[in-house]
Amino acid sequence: MKDVFDLLGRILLSFIFFFEAYDYFAFEQLNRQAMTIYGLTWNQDFFLYGAILLLVLGGLMILLGYRMRLGAILLLIYWVPLTFIVHDFWVEAEGTESFRLQSLFFVKNLAIMGGLLLAATHVSGRYRLRRLFATTRV
Questions:
Q1: What's the predicted TM-score (pTM) here?
Q2: Which residue stretches, if any, does this entry annotate as coiled coil (predicted)?
Q3: I need a labelling partner for 44 at 20 to 30 A (CA). Which of 23, 27, 31, 100 fits?
Q4: Residue 48 lies inside a defined structural domain of this protein
């Protein structure tokens, strides 16, 4: 049962990264506008496509249980700056709707970072890519 929960946890954790990569790709122009609002005007292509690459590659590594530590580090390279740049609730007026939402998103991202740190120190269970290759004759 532990291995099933491990697989389910990796699926659920990686889903948010795949969804965000899809969102960046599908709404590219809106994301470029948001980057401009947050002051990221230099080399937007590099940051946008780099973020998509980190999200997809790190998400796949977590999902497949293959080199999860590297996958978690790749995702943290993206997730930590994003959290502090985009969800800066401390600049909003306290008690406003914007303050409440940004602080909620900030804490949610902290929880995701905690999950990534756990994934970085965790050895995935029976259902992982490396184990499947080791037990089958290819």
A1: 0.86
A2: none
A3: 100
A4: yes
